[in-house]
Design goal:
- With 338 residues, the protein is an alpha/beta fold.
- The protein folds into 2 domains: 173 residues, Periplasmic binding protein-like II (D-Maltodextrin-Binding Protein, domain 2), CATH 3.40.190.10; 148 residues, Periplasmic binding protein-like II (D-Maltodextrin-Binding Protein, domain 2).
- Helix content is 44%, strand content 16%.
- The chain contains 14 helices and 10 strands.
- Strands 1, 2, 3, 4, 5, 6, 7, 8, 9 and 10 form a 10-stranded mixed sheet that branches.
- Strand 1, helix 2 and strand 2 form a beta-alpha-beta unit.
- The protein is globular, with a radius of gyration of 21 Å.
Length: 338
């Protein structure tokens, strides 16, 4: 009862702190960690004078918006992974935006065909290999992971995680459901251990010799490499090389972080201005230098660190297709026990 009371009190305080009709404010619901997104809001406020009020959460924002309905203070939702963005679309919580700035700054495959959400940064899902036990060039395509020679050498997080489900969805788009399931079966057969942990845990497993190969998002490599708080993660990063896959065919699978305008927004102009700001060079440079994510704006050069990882060809499959195929991917994941 005490815990419930505290949660309820927190909820009330948050609602009171949001002035839904404030002229120079915008209210954001964000799944992104404060350290990853608050610097962008600070820059936006300095540039425009518009204050950004943020509710950060690890989960539950969809349910909250559904519960609040037209009374929600939220103007903008920011989240990671196309699957999460699509949840807000499926529940009719996002409003289409007509913005020449967003259309100019974001390639068509990185935004909703009906302009309900827009990607703000990209992350490539790559293969990490031991830099002492796997020779360069031994793996070139994501499809190579099913080769029997890698039996007992691969680590991954659970297949049902959004990142892996989207990866499998990209394989369904490329090869069809039957062949994608064959790939998933082959991957599971080659696992060194039961899927567990996050992407960093897979790099740690390579460092410790548990496996030689892992699947992870690129930005985790940068986060480990320059981690000042948990310095042991630098050794994990030093133990791996990263491989951008499928460079001679469709390109490396990518996923996105993005946002959309809440259909009940009371500060639409400010919310759209914030979305547009996040696609401009100043903000896009922050995604690259601070978060080790790839900018969506094609005119922006990469940070020196990202350049050092090498250029790569990305899969231009419309990202919304990944959300469309996610339910099929999940059924495969369940069937093969990933």
């Amino acid at each position: 009862m005490k815990k419930f009371f505290l949660i309820s009190l927190l909820y009330i305080n948050i609602i009171i702190s949001f002035d839904v009709y404030a002229i120079n404010e915008v209210n954001v619901y964000s799944y992104r960690q404060p350290i990853l997104i608050d610097p962008f809001f600070d820059q936006f406020t300095k540039s425009t004078g518009i204050k950004v009020n943020v509710l950060h959460a690890k989960k539950g924002l969809l349910e909250r918006l559904l519960s609040e309905g037209a009374n929600t203070p939220a103007d903008l939702v920011l989240t990671v992974d196309i699957a999460r963005l699509n949840q807000f679309v499926k529940n009719d919580l996002l409003m289409p935006i007509e913005s020449s700035i967003l259309k100019t700054n974001i390639p068509s495959h990185l935004r909703d065909s009906k302009n309900r959400w827009f990607a703000l940064s990209k992350r490539a899902r790559i293969i990490a290999i031991s830099n002492t036990r796997i020779k360069p060039g031994a793996i070139n395509r994501i499809e190579d992971l099913v080769d029997p020679k890698w039996k007992g050498k691969i680590c991954t997080r659970v297949g049902s995680h959004d990142y892996n489900r989207s990866l499998l969805a990209s394989l369904i788009a490329a090869h069809g459901e039957t062949k994608a399931e064959e790939w998933a079966k082959g991957l599971v057969a080659n696992l060194a251990r039961k899927p567990e942990g996050n992407d960093r845990a897979q790099a740690k497993a390579i460092h410790e010799g548990v496996c030689d190969i892992a699947i992870m998002n690129t930005y985790y490599y940068g986060k480990m490499k320059f981690n000042k708080k948990n310095t042991e993660q630098k050794f994990w990063a030093d133990s791996i090389n990263i491989i951008f896959t499928n460079q001679n065919d469709r390109g490396n699978h990518i996923n996105v972080a993005g946002g959309g305008l809440v259909k009940y927004s009371k500060n639409k102009e400010n919310a759209i201005a914030l979305l547009e700001f996040l696609t401009q060079p100043k903000a896009q440079a922050l995604y690259s230098s601070m978060n080790y994510e790839y900018p969506v704006n094609p005119t922006l050069p990469l940070s020196e660190e990202l350049k050092s990882w090498g250029s790569f060809k990305e899969d231009k499959l419309p990202v919304e297709k990944l959300a469309e195929l996610a339910p099929v991917a999940q059924k495969i994941i369940d069937r093969v026990g990933w």
